[in-house]
Write the structure tokens for this entry.
Amino acid sequence: MKTKLAIRLMAVAPLIFGAAAYSAELRGHGGPVRAIAVTADGQTAITGSFDTKAIVWSLETGEAREVLLFHEGQVNAVAALPDGRFATAGADGRIAIWDSGRSAPVSLLEGHTGPISALAVSPDGSTLASASWDTTVRLWPLSGGQPRVLEGHHGNVNAVAFLSDGTLVSAGYDAAVFFWPRDQGTAPLRVEIPAPLNALVAVAEDRLAVGGADGKLRLIDRSGAVLIETQISSGPLIALAVSPDGKRIAAAAVGDSIRLLDAKDLSPLRTLDTSGVPVWSLAFTAEGRTLLAGGADRLVREWDVQSGERLGSSVAAETDLMARYAGNPDAQVFRACIACHTLDPDDGNRAGPTLHGIFGRRIASVPGYHYSPAFREMDIVWTPETVSKLFELGPSKYTPGTKMPEQRISNPEDRAALIRFLQAETRSD
């Protein structure tokens, strides 16, 4: 895979992004914000986006200190390392390690053969874990050396987290949670959950919260027993975060508000209104008093955890990309898609190719869009039937190897509504 020139914009960042005083909004990404991590001292955050960029921010001023351009696809995962470095990973299957002030990654961790979906740092700071759609999890010694490859999942691995003793836990679209023992000679514990899994966080008392495609949040103990489950949304849960003290969980679903819950019993604490803007990523600040949320509208916003109020200026109506379709009942099914795809001929590509003129078009044929190699090998023409089948089976089954985020529409009426909407809004004439 060819490597782009890694570029870092530093001194010009304040001029580009116009940051003077922190307004509780981080502006600079050109696509949905897919990942957020905050440093232990609470002064800095790093974000990753569908626009292929990672940005290092000052949380004191809101200034974009550094823009990291290296990856050949969306940046799905970021991590703040204990020594002041950062890790970024994404659709190109590579992990880049960055030192502050350097114009290129100081090292690359390569070996995954599919998009990397998540990163986690071990409690002692010695190891970086990565989850990939190639069905594997890898443990990378940050001091150097070969990774430990963990195999067992039967589909996309979407999340990883460490328990307090260093035990690694992973969750995937195969509806399985794996507890990986530190002793390589011991078999992992596999726990079946009744839904594909998108997100995972460790909470207090060495328990774990897992977010499913069925919209349910489940609390499990380290034996894998489901202690509590609660319905958060009718749509898939796609982002979770836990407060630094492990006592609060933030959860976001496709096209829904952010929910704050008590980590002990999953009782609701408050709802944070996102005004219809889908949230792709969440992270508590270091002191736990505020919550950062990365949106489909390219912004990172901040909420006060105690009051539930959003800090800074209110969400403008125009930031809801679906506002123009208000009153169209068929449009609501498309809400989760607009983060990645445009509909109008003049709007071009986002993280995914434009859908303008999709019906009758061959797969992987939009000019100027960088498709995954697997997509370019497929023989599919997009019709109402094939688009419906894509969401009935899910992208990972219908178009294996795709960069498209995993999402199914199980209800036939909802799939029919999506097709009607696309037929009306993507016509070339």
Notes: The chain has three domains: 1-109+310-317, 111-272, 323-425. The radius of gyration is 20 Å.
